[in-house]
């Protein structure tokens, strides 16, 4: 096989546990990282956040509309926490980080909902994907190599 261009991000398919929710997206697991955050919901739900290389590369395949997903919002309701309405698996979050007066668009899937690559290559070994940590509890997006207070490995 010829070498792929460096910016060719493999498209991955993912799903909830029962398969009701399915999606595809471009994820660079070789060069990218998974983010763990110490904020109240990321910590309690044990999120492993993985952002697609671009928001447009993400597509919800089933169900046909986000309105058919379980959607949890709280506080300023800037972020949708989407889960499967049947099996309750958290699948992705989408919305805005409130950073003082700024609102930064944000979207991430749960890395542990990835199933396979659409190019036929074997799925990446998640053990080899670097985990980075943010201090979402204090609205700080700086990435460190170890958890901030209140977080967990
Ligand atoms: Zn499900």
UniProtKB/TrEMBL annotation:
Entry keyword annotation includes S-adenosyl-L-methionine: no
Xref: InterPro entries: CENP-V-like (IPR052355), CENP-V/GFA (IPR006913), Mss4-like_sf (IPR011057)
Keyword Cell membrane appears in the UniProt entry: no
GO molecular function, one term: metal ion binding
Keyword tags: Metal-binding, Zinc
Family of the protein in this entry: Belongs to the Gfa family.
Family matches, as PROSITE patterns: CENP_V_GFA
Start and end residues of each CENP-V/GFA domain: 12-140
Highest taxon above the source species: Eukaryota
Protein name: CENP-V/GFA domain-containing protein
A Pfam short name: GFA
UniProt-listed PANTHER family: CENP-V_GFA DOMAIN-CONTAINING PROTEIN, CENTROMERE PROTEIN V
């Amino acid at each position: 096989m010829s070498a792929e261009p460096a910016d060719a991000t493999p498209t991955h398919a993912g799903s909830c546990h029962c398969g009701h929710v399915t999606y595809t997206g471009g994820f660079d697991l070789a060069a990218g990282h998974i983010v763990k955050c110490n904020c109240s919901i990321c910590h309690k739900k044990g999120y492993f956040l993985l952002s697609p290389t671009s928001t447009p590369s993400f597509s919800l395949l089933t169900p046909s509309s986000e309105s058919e997903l379980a959607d949890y919002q709280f506080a300023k309701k800037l972020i949708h926490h989407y889960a499967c309405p049947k099996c309750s698996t958290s699948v992705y979050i989408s919305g805005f980080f409130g950073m003082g007066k700024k609102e930064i668009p944000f979207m991430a899937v749960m890395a542990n909902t990835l199933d396979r690559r659409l190019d036929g290559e074997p799925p990446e070994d998640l053990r080899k994907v670097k985990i980075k940590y943010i201090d979402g509890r204090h609205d700080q997006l700086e990435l460190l190599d170890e958890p901030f207070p209140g977080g967990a490995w």
